[in-house]
């Protein structure tokens, strides 16, 4: 209760900014950033128990404060009420007292549904969305964590959106998320003020302390809206503990396409060579073009493959028998080359 | 059931560059059945078949393209791997080595290649194969003669001779078969026809 307790204009301003931020961030949360960053911050909370013990309740307090203030504060931001209403209509009835908190959690589900289609930064391609998720998660977590979470969050966003909406309870996510947000915010304020104090000023002047959260707010929220990033490497408030990972734009595409969201449709058609089945001359759908039953790489559609399996079961391309183990079952285990793994739930 | 759409696409595809490839396919005798086709291949250069146009009867089995098309030379050919009697072809891709990835065009191109590269070790016509192995020169001249006689329909070949003999009063089908049996030699055919 350190900052809430202190009746300084600085903390009031900080809380005010926090209210705003809580509102805005609820609209701007992308599904992709959640996991890695949350885990990162939660672990940091555990590590720095001393440092975060005080800010945590402060964040909770500010969260409670923003509950009351949210409808008013939300009004200056036209997109927010609309999106929230959208989320609410998807999520069903939402009580007023936990509206703001619920909106944050709901927004997770809502953005899951929305982001592939509606979010401005992922409208061009799913590859972009994946890169974006990679970008933010690379800031948030270690290499293994980030790759996992980017996969998880992206695949969830495109394939399990409906399940997700109902499956994971909003409240459940909500509590953790709110805390995490608060902690993140409080931490940066804390750090900042500590810096100030160590520099010699006994009490943080209103101006500096005011500017810190505001700057923080703008830094945090605006980029999140535009490209869903959390910390840039040159961010002033970037925690030192965050690993610096260079952007690997090709990485999510390679890994991601196994899950079907790594490539845009255009990308697919370039990489997967034949557009029609060489046997029946029908167009290959994405499932077919990712279907490589023979190591020779001969593409054909599933229908023709089945037909061949019923006959002599030899690959039309190399005349070798299809893999004996799988061909015997009639259910071949396709050899998947990474470049043509393009099965997408979009289609 | 023959895959009609595939066959139609194959015909379009094949006839698009028939000037270059030298192979073309059409419905048999302008008929309406897509399962009975006639292919034509140009005799390959630097072979005894150069300058000839060889017609091939193509019948598509119900399992096409998963079963090979049945092909047979309509035009008489003197070739170790093609029957001089009925035009039957000995070519692995038309039998056990067929692949659904092959097409009528590729099959015809394979036949074209077969004309320029006989395989006498695996003969269809033993007499021709023996001649090819033992007396290459005679084989080449015979093959060239057959090409002249049967594969150049619009030259002063078969049709003119048939016309002449028919005008002498012989039935056309008998004239044709007799002419074929004597390798297109008009005088020998006349002699044979007269002797009965």
Annotation keywords:
A: 347 residues, Herpes Virus-1, 2 domains, 17 helices, disordered C terminus, B: 196 residues, alpha+beta, Ubiquitin Conjugating Enzyme
SSE layout and pairing:
The complex is a heterodimer of chains A (about 350) and B (about 200).
Chain A: H1 2-5, H2 9-28, H3 34-47, H4 49-53, H5 55-74, H6 79-91, H7 99-118, H8 126-140, H9 143-158, H10 161-167, H11 170-199, H12 206-227, H13 250-256, H14 265-271, H15 286-289, H16 302-310, H17 324-329
Chain B: H1 4-16, H2 18-21, E1 23-27, E2 36-42, E3 53-59, E4 70-73, H3 104-116, H4 126-134, H5 136-150, H6 158-167, H7 172-181, H8 186-195
Antiparallel strand pairs in B: 1-2, 2-3, 3-4
Helix pairs in contact in B: 4-5, 6-7, 7-8
Brief summary:
The complex is a heterodimer of chains A (347) and B (196). Chain A has 347 residues and is mainly alpha-helical. Chain A has helices at 2-5, 9-28, 34-47, 49-53, 55-74, 79-91, 99-118, 126-140, 143-158, 161-167, 170-199, 206-227, 250-256, 265-271, 286-289, 302-310, 324-329.
Explain what the structure shows:
Chain B: Keywords: ATP-binding, Nucleotide-binding, Transferase, Ubl conjugation pathway. Chain B: Residues 157-196 form the UBA domain. Chain B: Belongs to the ubiquitin-conjugating enzyme family. The complex is a heterodimer of chains A (347) and B (196). Chain A has 347 residues and is an all-alpha fold. Chain A folds into 2 domains: 2-232, no CATH class; 264-340, Herpes Virus-1, CATH 3.30.40. Chain A has 17 helices and no strands. In chain A, helix 7 (99-118) runs antiparallel to helix 10 (161-167), helix 8 (126-140) runs antiparallel to helix 9 (143-158) and helix 8 (126-140) packs across helix 13. Residues 1-14, 50-173, 195-226, 247-272 and 325-347 of chain A have low confidence and may be disordered. Chain B is of the alpha+beta class. Chain B has 2 domains: 4-125, Ubiquitin Conjugating Enzyme (Roll); 156-195. Chain B has helices at residues 4-16, 18-21, 104-116, 126-134, 136-150, 158-167, 172-181, 186-195, and strands at residues 23-27, 36-42, 53-59, 70-73. In chain B, strands 1-2-3-4 form a 4-stranded antiparallel β-sheet. In chain B, a hairpin with an 8-residue loop joins strand 1 (23-27) and strand 2. Chain B is globular and about 50 Å long. The interface between A and B is medium-sized, with 14 and 12 residues.
């Amino acid at each position: 209760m350190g900052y809430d307790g202190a009746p300084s204009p600085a903390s009031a301003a900080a809380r005010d900014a926090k209210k705003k931020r809580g509102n805005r961030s609820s609209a701007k949360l992308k599904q992709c950033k959640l996991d890695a960053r949350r885990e990162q911050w939660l672990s940091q909370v555990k590590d720095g128990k001393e440092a975060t013990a005080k800010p945590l309740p402060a964040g909770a307090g500010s969260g409670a404060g923003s509950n009351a203030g949210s409808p008013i504060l939300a009004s200056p931001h036209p997109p927010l009420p609309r999106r929230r209403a959208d989320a609410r209509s998807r999520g069903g009835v939402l009580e007023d007292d936990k509206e703001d908190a619920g909106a944050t959690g709901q927004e997770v589900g809502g953005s899951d549904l929305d982001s592939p289609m509606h979010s401005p930064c992922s409208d061009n391609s799913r590859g972009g969305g994946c890169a974006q998720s990679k970008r933010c998660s690379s800031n948030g977590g270690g290499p293994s964590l980030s790759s996992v979470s980017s996969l998880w969050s992206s695949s969830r966003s495109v394939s399990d959106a409906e399940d997700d909406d109902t499956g994971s309870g909003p409240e459940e996510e909500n509590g953790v998320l709110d805390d995490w947000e608060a902690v993140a915010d409080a931490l940066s304020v804390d750090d900042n003020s500590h810096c100030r104090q160590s520099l010699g000023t006994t009490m943080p002047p209103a101006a500096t302390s005011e500017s810190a959260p505001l700057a923080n707010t703008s830094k945090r929220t605006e980029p999140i809206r535009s490209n869903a990033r959390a910390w840039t490497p040159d961010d002033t408030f970037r925690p030192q503990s965050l690993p610096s990972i260079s952007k690997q734009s090709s990485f999510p595409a390679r890994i991601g396409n196994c899950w079907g969201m790594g490539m845009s449709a255009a990308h697919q058609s370039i990489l997967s060579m034949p557009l029609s089945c060489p046997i029946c001359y029908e167009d290959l759908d994405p499932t077919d073009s990712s279907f490589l039953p023979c190591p020779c790489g001969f593409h054909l559609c599933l229908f023709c493959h089945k037909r061949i399996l019923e006959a002599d079961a030899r690959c039309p391309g190399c005349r070798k028998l299809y893999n004996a183990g799988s061909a015997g079952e009639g259910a071949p285990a396709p050899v998947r080359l990474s470049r043509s793994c393009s099965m997408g739930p979009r289609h | 059931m023959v895959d009609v759409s595939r066959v139609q696409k194959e015909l379009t595809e094949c006839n698009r560059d028939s000037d270059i490839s030298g192979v073309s396919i059409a419905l048999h005798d302008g008929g309406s059945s897509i399962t009975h086709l006639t292919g034509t291949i140009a005799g390959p250069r630097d072979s005894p078949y150069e300058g000839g146009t060889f017609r091939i009867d193509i019948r598509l089995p119900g399992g096409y393209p998963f079963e090979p098309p049945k092909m047979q030379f309509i035009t008489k050919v003197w070739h170790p791997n093609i029957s001089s009697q009925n035009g039957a072809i000995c070519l692995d891709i038309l039998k056990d080595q067929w692949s659904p990835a092959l097409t009528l065009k590729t099959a015809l191109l394979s036949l074209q290649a077969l004309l320029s590269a006989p395989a006498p070790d695996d003969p269809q016509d033993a007499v021709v194969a023996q001649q090819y192995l033992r007396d290459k020169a005679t084989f080449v001249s015979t093959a060239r003669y057959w090409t002249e006689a049967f594969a150049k329909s619009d030259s002063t070949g078969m049709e003119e001779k048939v016309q002449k003999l028919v005008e002498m009063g012989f039935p056309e089908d008998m004239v044709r078969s007799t002419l074929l049996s004597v390798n297109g030699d008009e005088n020998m055919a006349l002699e044979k026809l007269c002797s009965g």
